[in-house]
């Protein structure tokens, strides 16, 4: 059974060159690679597995959040003087191989993805992302943490969508967008923004984009022709006369302060994340003037809405939006390609990524 993992130094040394890579996060060079991991044991008749399901993965993908998990895992195993590893990954698509005796919602052969519902308990199971190790080729999940994927969504798309769809759908629901409103989507080529754009397609609102790098904006416009204009953040291109009713933002530590003066009265500013997630980036964060920020938000009657993930209903509704509306996949990797290429593409090292990046087990 395979898994993509953070490796201890001695395991890195033993791993085949094409299956390993020293991945940079700030000044750290973190050893990652494919390992042969131990198979989980699952007894369909045992009481302790009664509500659980044994899943064989067919695809997985990584998200921005996994960078923090990779760094933390590395801190724990970098001094370990033996061959060990920490499997990574957050999105996946898999096939149910075995079910526990109380499971009635899933059966052998079902194609499933993770259900990251949050913040409340659903399906008698715990809220949150079901696994931080989704690249494990076989894994055991509580049946309530899985959702059957509709026919017609290919495995590489299914294995790349759960966290993004659930989060974007939740934010769009909470944004309560009305006809004719101006909606700004930030970091327009980010994965999260691709989900926003895919789900905004049918809304009768004016969608604008903001690009941090200024790269790949033509590709975004070609794929999402309803986007009225994409502004370049670094070149300070936002027009003084354009005000937004809704901002959908995945990197609020970059954008909240500069965008406040572009918000309309009664605007909703929704954010699901920050750019500075690594320990070095957090240390280097610049201070902001909180008093001015609050005063600006208050005088415009702005609602600042933090959002983490979404409900099970958000996932179901969001996924249905992709049955005849393809999720953009930049590239699908298999064991034939090098791990370095997969990681560099996933984290857009060359600055040319357009869509999600998937890994398929063949
Ligand atoms: N809480 C939740 O439930 C949840 C769920 C999903 C995602 N998130 C969060 O959403 C964020 C985005 O994740 P993702 O996977 O979509 O990221 P991603 O695909 O890796 O996004 C990278 C993009 O961010 C832009 N960018 C680069 N440097 C930036 C900077 N300094 N400030 C702002 N933008 C910059 C670039 O796009 P442009 O050049 O086009 O601007 C780049 O292509 C993360 O903070 C993640 O943790 C949270």
Outline the structure in words.
With 362 residues, the chain is of the alpha/beta class. It folds into 2 domains: 2-161 and 327-360, Alpha-Beta Complex (Quinone Oxidoreductase, Chain A, domain 1); 175-306, 3-Layer(aba) Sandwich (Rossmann fold). The protein is 26% helix and 27% strand. It contains 11 helices and 17 strands. The strands form 3 sheets. Strands 4, 6, 7, 8, 9, 16 and 17 form a 7-stranded mixed beta sheet that branches. α4 packs across α5 (191-200) and α4 (162-175) packs across α10. The termini are close together. The model has no long low-confidence stretch (mean pLDDT 95). The structure holds NADP nicotinamide-adenine-dinucleotide phosphate (NAP). Residues 63-65, 163-164, 167, 187-192, 211-213, 215, 250-251, 254, 272-275, 308-309, 348 line the site of NADP nicotinamide-adenine-dinucleotide phosphate. The site of NADP nicotinamide-adenine-dinucleotide phosphate (NAP) has 26 residues, from α4 and α5.
């Amino acid at each position: 059974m395979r898994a993509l993992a953070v490796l201890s130094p001695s395991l890195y040394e033993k791993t085949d060159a094409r299956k390993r890579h020293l991945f940079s996060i700030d000044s750290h060079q973190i050893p990652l690679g494919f390992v042969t991991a131990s198979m989980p044991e699952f007894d369909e008749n045992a009481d302790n597995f009664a509500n659980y399901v044994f899943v064989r993965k067919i695809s997985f993908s990584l998200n921005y959040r996994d960078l923090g998990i990779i760094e933390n895992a590395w801190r724990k195993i970098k001094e370990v003087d033996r061959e060990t590893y920490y499997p990574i990954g957050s999105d996946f698509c898999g096939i149910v191989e075995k079910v526990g005796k109380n499971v009635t919602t899933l059966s052998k052969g079902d194609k499933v993805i993770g259900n990251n519902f949050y913040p409340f308990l659903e399906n008698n199971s715990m809220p949150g992302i079901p696994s931080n190790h989704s690249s494990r080729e076989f894994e055991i999940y509580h049946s309530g943490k899985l959702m059957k994927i509709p026919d017609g969504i290919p495995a590489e798309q299914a294995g790349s969508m759960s966290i993004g769809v659930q989060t974007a759908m939740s934010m769009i629901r909470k944004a309560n967008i009305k006809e004719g409103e101006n909606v700004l989507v930030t970091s327009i080529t980010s994965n999260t923004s691709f989900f926003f754009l895919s789900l905004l397609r049918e809304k009768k609102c004016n969608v604008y984009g903001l690009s941090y790098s200024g790269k790949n904006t033509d590709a975004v416009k070609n794929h999402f022709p309803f986007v009225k204009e994409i502004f370049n953040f670094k070149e300070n291109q936002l027009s003084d006369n354009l005000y937004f009713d809704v901002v959908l933002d995945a990197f609020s530590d970059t954008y909240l302060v500069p965008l406040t003066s572009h918000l309309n009265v009664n605007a909703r500013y929704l954010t699901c994340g920050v750019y500075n997630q690594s320990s070095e980036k957090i240390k280097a964060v610049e201070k902001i003037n909180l008093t001015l920020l609050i005063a600006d938000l208050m005088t415009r009657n702005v609602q600042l809405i933090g959002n983490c993930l979404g409900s099970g209903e958000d996932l179901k509704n969001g996924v249905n939006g992709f049955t005849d509306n393809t999720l953009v996949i930049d590239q699908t990797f298999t064991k034939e390609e090098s791990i370095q290429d997969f990681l560099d593409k996933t984290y857009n090292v060359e600055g040319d990524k357009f869509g999600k990046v998937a890994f398929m087990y063949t």
